[in-house]
């Protein structure tokens, strides 16, 4: 976790709009990184007891929020709620305010329009492993965002995993397809591998255990310094052996897994692009998929 986070945001107040699964994961990561609960003003229509017990300012009215003047507004809401919620906090968005968005498909131009054209914006695309501090987040900043604001945004997201900066806002569609939706692909692979084990005669619980630990162990190997996934695959594959027989299917003449993954991620990226267009026309029509 970044040791600079408390220094970067020392004395500043942060507004977190939406505290569902992702918002809660981020909030816990920020508290673990050294920020104080009293710095946070959280707007969440259905707060659980654990959130109330953290000591954050919970669901204060707009007048109190204006007086608190949070310098960072984090939007962790579903994209279809943008058209209703963003105008309600427009009074909190000043030129020096940093707005960090987790909303898929809601462009900076749309957010700027809904907030009245003020503030600096950083769009982000985190993923669910952020809940255990192992997330991957891509960030893109609007042209008016200052370097200290970019540093604050990066430090906040780095508290729950790794970060990368993007050169174009459009690249968020590709990020959504790879790392944003990527955990679901791996979870489905565990399902598929376990189902294959059952087909070969294993009991369901044993097949699931074998599949899950295989994925977990293999991912751990990828974390080693200078790990090369291609070389790791080659290392496992003995000529004429069982792994090679399976890979002949997965890497077959028709394109195999590479082609399937290409088509799957193209579909995800295309959907992200559709959501962006919907968001520009009317965020109310967005279904909030990411």
How many strand segments? 8
Query: What structural class do you assign from the helix and strand content?
Result: alpha/beta
The appropriate CATH architecture of the largest domain is 3-Layer(aba) Sandwich
The name CATH uses for the topology of the largest domain is Rossmann fold
Largest β-sheet summary: 8 strands, mixed
State the helicity in percent bands. Answer: 40-55%
If you average the pLDDT, what whole number results?
90
Global Rg: 22 Å
Widest beta sheet: strand line-up: 3-2-1-4-5-6-7-8
CATH class of the largest domain reads Alpha Beta
Brief descriptors of the model:
290 residues; alpha/beta; Rossmann fold; ProC C-terminal domain-like fold; eight-stranded mixed sheet; 13 helices; disordered C terminus
Task: List strands and helices in order, with pairings.
Blueprint: H1 5-8, E1 14-17, H2 21-32, E2 40-43, H3 49-52, E3 57-58, H4 62-68, E4 72-75, H5 82-85, E5 98-101, H6 108-114, E6 120-125, E7 135-141, H7 147-158, E8 161-165, H8 171-180, H9 182-199, H10 204-222, H11 229-236, H12 242-250, H13 256-281
Parallel strand pairs: 1-2, 1-4, 2-3, 4-5, 5-6, 7-8
Antiparallel strand pairs: 6-7
Helix pairs in contact: 8-13, 9-10
Q: How would you sum up this structure, described in words?
A:
The chain is α/β, with parallel strands linked by helices and 290 residues long. The chain folds into two domains: 5-172, Rossmann fold; 182-265, ProC C-terminal domain-like (ProC C-terminal domain-like fold), CATH 1.10.3730.10. 48% of the residues lie in helices and 12% in strands. The chain has 13 helices and eight strands. It has helices at 5-8, 21-32, 49-52, 62-68, 82-85, 108-114, 147-158, 171-180, 182-199, 204-222, 229-236, 242-250, 256-281, and strands spanning 14-17, 40-43, 57-58, 72-75, 98-101, 120-125, 135-141, 161-165. It has an eight-stranded mixed sheet, with helices on both faces. Strand 5, helix 6 and strand 6 form a beta-alpha-beta unit. Helix 8 crosses helix 13 (256-281) and helix 9 packs across helix 10. It is elongated. It starts with a helix and ends in a 9-residue tail after the last helix.
């Amino acid at each position: 976790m970044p040791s600079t986070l408390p220094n970067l945001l020392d004395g500043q107040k942060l507004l977190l709009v939406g505290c569902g699964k992702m918002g809660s994961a981020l909030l816990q990561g920020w508290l673990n990184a050294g920020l104080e609960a009293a710095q946070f003003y959280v707007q969440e229509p259905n707060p659980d007891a654990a959130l109330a017990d953290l000591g954050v300012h919970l669901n204060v009215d707009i007048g109190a929020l204006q007086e608190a003047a949070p310098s960072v507004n984090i939007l962790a809401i579903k994209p279809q709620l943008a058209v209703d919620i963003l105008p309600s906090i427009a009074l909190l968005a000043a030129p020096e305010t940093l707005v960090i968005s987790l909303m898929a498909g809601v462009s900076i131009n749309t957010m700027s329009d809904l907030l009245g054209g003020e503030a600096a914006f950083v769009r982000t695309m985190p993923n669910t492993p952020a809940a255990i501090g192992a997330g991957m987040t891509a960030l893109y900043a609007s042209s008016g965002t200052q370097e200290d604001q970019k540093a604050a945004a990066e430090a906040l997201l780095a508290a729950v995993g790794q970060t990368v900066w993007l050169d174009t806002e459009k690249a968020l569609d590709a990020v959504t397809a790879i790392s944003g939706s990527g955990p679901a692909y791996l979870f489905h692979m565990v399902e598929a591998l376990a189902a294959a084990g059952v087909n070969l005669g294993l009991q369901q619980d044993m097949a699931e255990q074998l599949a899950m630990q295989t994925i977990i162990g293999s991912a751990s190997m990828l974390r080693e310094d200078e790990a090369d996934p291609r070389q790791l695959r080659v290392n496992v594959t003995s000529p004429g052996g069982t792994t090679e027989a399976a890979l002949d299917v997965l890497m077959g003449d028709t394109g195999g897994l590479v082609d399937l993954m290409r088509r799957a991620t193209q579909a995800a990226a295309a959907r992200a692009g559709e959501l962006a267009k919907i968001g520009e026309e009317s965020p109310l029509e967005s279904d909030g998929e990411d």
